[in-house]
């Protein structure tokens, strides 16, 4: 007899997260083992509150439109962390599973989400419930998995954000080249608290290194005087300079006071939300002293459009995000509990990939780093090996986005929610 599925999302969204959701829903509809697919409205918080949107009964055309609907507005996301001591939350989730005949739980997200998927499914099994727990990878940071790329080669969302930065740098180069007599230095801050895959993608705009471009990754702590010297050297050579910095870059002499840092419920610094950003601090410091050429530095801090711009999405990323969602649904239907659907590179010379599975405990306890050997000795660039790795992920052609009457046609889910069978509940950490 078919059991129902809950799929939910956690953490920051991506341009292609909805296509993973689409892959799960469309595949589950064709599998006799899976009954109704419910979406946890705003992640695990929606599951706790018994806010379950029926995705199976949505119009197929709306589900299809998830392909080019970015971010997480379709079923929402959250930053609620299930901690081991929150026994009431785990009890509540088990009650939800029983009340709605749930046999499959799929959580889309990063390392913390994989940890949640693993915990929830294991607790269910310990309590005698036949629930299959599956993870769906998602993060624009590309930090899920291991640094040897054995658990997963890359995560859906990264390719599109990398493409965004490739395009953004090319356009910024035109701006900087034209306005350099007044604004010779353009500092651009990219997302990436601890890992440099996003700012590194700036190099994809200029693989032959023809632009006056410097890239500073969070992995390499720098000194303000060293940065100033690097920039002035570029100004003397080219008359202008473009500088990309990780939002989590540590610069000796420009430390951000902890009281100015905003943190989410996971304890992660939300650096673009903080009162002072690294990019603006660097610009302020550069403008305190005369530059090697006349003019001033200016700062652009890219916000959440890095992860919700469907126009700059990668066709490769869109395709892979769908099939990894399909793989997640197939793993669930086959009863392969405790795995995350994964993307593995089958041929590194001629880019081809295959879809596999990685044990959730290994993913949840892993931490990917940007390879040190992909950072140039000078610390202001990335190597050709990184370009070789990342170039296939951004694709070539533009995504075809449906437009009606001049407006993007986005998916719109009908508010078809499961009947609430249990008493109201306030998540434990919100009390």
TrEMBL record:
Its cofactor is Mg(2+). The record marks 138 as: Important for catalytic activity. The keyword Lipid biosynthesis does not apply. Keywords: Cytoplasm, Glycolysis, Kinase, Magnesium, Metal-binding, Transferase. The active site is at 141 (proton acceptor). The keyword Kinase applies. Its main location: cytoplasm. Substrate binds at residues 139-141, 191-193, 247. The record marks 112 as: Important for catalytic activity and substrate specificity. GO terms for molecular function: 6-phosphofructokinase activity; diphosphate-fructose-6-phosphate 1-phosphotransferase activity; metal ion binding. GO terms for cellular component: cytoplasm. Mg(2+) binds at residue 111. Non-allosteric. SUPFAM superfamilies: Phosphofructokinase (SSF53784). GO terms for biological process: fructose 6-phosphate metabolic process. Coiled coil: none annotated. Residues 5-310 form the Phosphofructokinase domain. InterPro entries: ATP_PFK, PFKA, Phosphofructokinase_dom, PKF_sf, PPi-PFK. It catalyses: beta-D-fructose 6-phosphate + diphosphate = beta-D-fructose 1,6-bisphosphate + phosphate + H(+). Its EC number is 2.7.1.90. It is found in: Cytoplasm. Pfam families: PFK. NCBIfam families: PRK14072.1 (NF010675). This is Pyrophosphate--fructose 6-phosphate 1-phosphotransferase. It comes from Rubinisphaera italica.
């Amino acid at each position: 007899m078919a059991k129902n599925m809950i799929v939910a999302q956690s953490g920051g969204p991506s341009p292609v997260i909805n296509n993973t959701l689409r892959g799960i829903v469309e595949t589950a509809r064709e599998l006799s083992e899976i009954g109704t697919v419910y979406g946890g409205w705003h992640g695990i918080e929606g599951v706790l509150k018994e806010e379950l949107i029926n995705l199976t009964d949505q119009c197929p055309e709306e589900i299809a439109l998830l392909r080019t609907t970015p971010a997480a507005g379709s079923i929402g996301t959250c930053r609620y962390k299930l901690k081991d001591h929150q026994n009431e939350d785990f009890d509540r989730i088990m009650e939800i599973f029983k009340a709605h005949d749930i046999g499959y739980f799929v959580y889309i997200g990063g390392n913390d989400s994989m940890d949640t998927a693993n915990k929830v499914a294991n607790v269910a099994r310990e309590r005698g419930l036949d629930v299959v727990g599956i993870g769906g990878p998602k993060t624009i940071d590309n930090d899920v998995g291991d640094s040897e790329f054995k658990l997963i080669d890359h995560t859906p969302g990264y390719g599109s954000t990398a493409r965004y930065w490739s395009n953004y740098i090319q356009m910024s180069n035109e701006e900087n080249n034209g306005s350099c007599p007044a604004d010779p230095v353009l500092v651009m801050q990219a997302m990436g608290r601890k890992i440099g895959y996003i700012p590194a993608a700036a190099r994809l705009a200029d693989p032959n290194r023809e632009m006056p471009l410097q890239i500073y990754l969070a992995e390499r702590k720098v000194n303000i005087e060293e940065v100033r010297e690097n920039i002035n050297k570029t100004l003397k050579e080219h008359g202008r300079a473009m500088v990309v910095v990780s939002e989590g870059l540590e610069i000796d002499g420009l430390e951000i006071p902890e009281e100015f840092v905003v943190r989410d419920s996971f304890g992660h610094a939300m650096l673009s939300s903080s009162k002072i950003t690294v990019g603006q601090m660097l610009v302020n410091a550069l403008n305190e002293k005369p530059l090697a050429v006349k003019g001033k530095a200016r700062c652009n801090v890219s916000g959440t459009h890095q992860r919700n711009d469907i126009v700059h999405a990668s066709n490769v990323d869109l395709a892979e995000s769908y099939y990894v969602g399909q793989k997640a649904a197939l793993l669930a239907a086959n009863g392969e509990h405790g795995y995350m659907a994964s993307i593995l590179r089958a041929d590194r010379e001629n880019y081809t990939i295959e879809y596999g599975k990685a044990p959730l405990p290994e993913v949840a306890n892993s931490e990917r780093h940007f390879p040190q050997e992909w950072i140039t000795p000078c610390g202001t660039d990335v190597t050709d090996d990184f370009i070789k790795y990342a170039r296939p992920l951004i694709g070539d052609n533009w995504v075809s986005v449906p437009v009606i009457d001049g407006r993007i046609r986005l998916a719109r889910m009908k508010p078809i929610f499961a009947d609430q069978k249990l008493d109201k509940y306030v998540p434990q950490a919100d009390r």
